[in-house]
Amino acid sequence: MNSDTVVVQQSSISSPSSFSAFDPKSFDAYVMSTYARFPLSLERGAGCRLWDTEGREYLDFVAGIATCTLGHAHPAIVEAVKRQIQKLHHVSNLYYIPEQGELAKWIVEHSCAERVFFCNSGAEANEAAIKLARKYAHSVLEIEQPIILTCHSSFHGRTLATITATGQPKYQKNFEPLVPGFHYVPYNDIAAVEAAISELDEGDYRVAAILIEPLQGEGGVRPGDIAYFQKLRQICDETGVLLIFDEVQVGVGRSGKLWGYEYLGVEPDIFTSAKGLGGGIPIGAMMAKKFCDVFQPGEHASTFGGNPFACAVAFAVCQTLEKENILQNVQQRGEQLRAGLRAIAAKYPGYISDVRGWGLINGLELDPQVELTAADVVKAAIDQGLLLVPAGPKVVRFVPPLIVTPKEVDTALQLVDKAMTTLTA
Ligand SMILES: Cc1ncc(COP(=O)(O)O)c(C=O)c1O
After folding, report:
1. Ligand 1 mean position to 346 CA, how many Å?
2. Ligand 1 pocket test target in 34, 275, 361, 395 with most atoms within 8 Å of CB
3. Could you give the CA distance from residue 315 to residue 301 in angstroms, rounded to a whole number?
4. CATH of the domain at 35
């Protein structure tokens, strides 16, 4: 053996079982309390199933919050991870990265985009879009003080610019001063957009872009209105205002189409993706049409963005979506789920005011007149062995892996029914 060879001592690698020692109490002693966590430590997954450190099994209708596209431990992901980690996992973007090029080509060939910028998360992808829009506004539209319109109840991330873009004061409170250059309008309200564009056109100020979710996820699973979005596209074409879609939650197949904008029959100028793109491996992306390709070398960057590892795994996710015809499953399982949730709503009159969504992003809204909260339903569902996630105080969100089977949807519906029985008893 060459004297330079590094030998990894097997005994120095901790056995995975040592992680179970991290019960919630000792966890909280070391990790910052930025999350209101449910008392559950998850350690293993397969498909749409998860197991906690006590060995209890759960049906996962959260998927890491609309992220684990192919569920847990999918062979395509396992294989891509193994293959790429043994070959090359990270190099700088100062060099060409073939896996990044391959993934960008796939995205361009499967969307209206002409160029892709890679980063690591949804917030970063939106930051990139905001920067691109501002540069475009300065250099092409010649606006000194560009304004970006965003919507009430939106969610765009947790960085300073993206909490400012997020039209929900609860995410901004205590973090002022916010980033200037944003203005909020009600969602699905075209008159408000027209009024803002004309009222904000003053001196150096002008609306340069609209950043909007095709379906508001965190804001309560609120689908965009087709007529509204088509009119929005028309206004942007007439005024030169950029149309930016935040597809972080709804994109990459979750809506039943590859991109949420396909539901609306409208193409954005720029759109962002993260969550489902890597199937659980951190990756973010900002896509733009060629005329928006205004960044010059050095104007935007990310150390990890688009590294060989993340791109190889995301590419495997995208290829699997296509090869296994998963979008058809998303449409069919979505219909099955909504029909079942509507039957549950009918069984508990007065408790559930709406069931809505696209594909496998669905919300069950609790009647404002009842005291029951989304967190109450989520807790009762956990007791039944089903993981769900709130989207605001009154909406329970269903975002399972896109590979969920008819039987798993039926089981989830039975567990929701049982949870509602306990809550309404
Ligand atoms: C629509 C939307 N945009 C942006 C984000 C932020 O993504 P990330 O948490 O990856 O920064 C989220 C996260 O929930 C989201 O739903």
Report:
1. 33
2. 275
3. 21
4. 3.90.1150.10
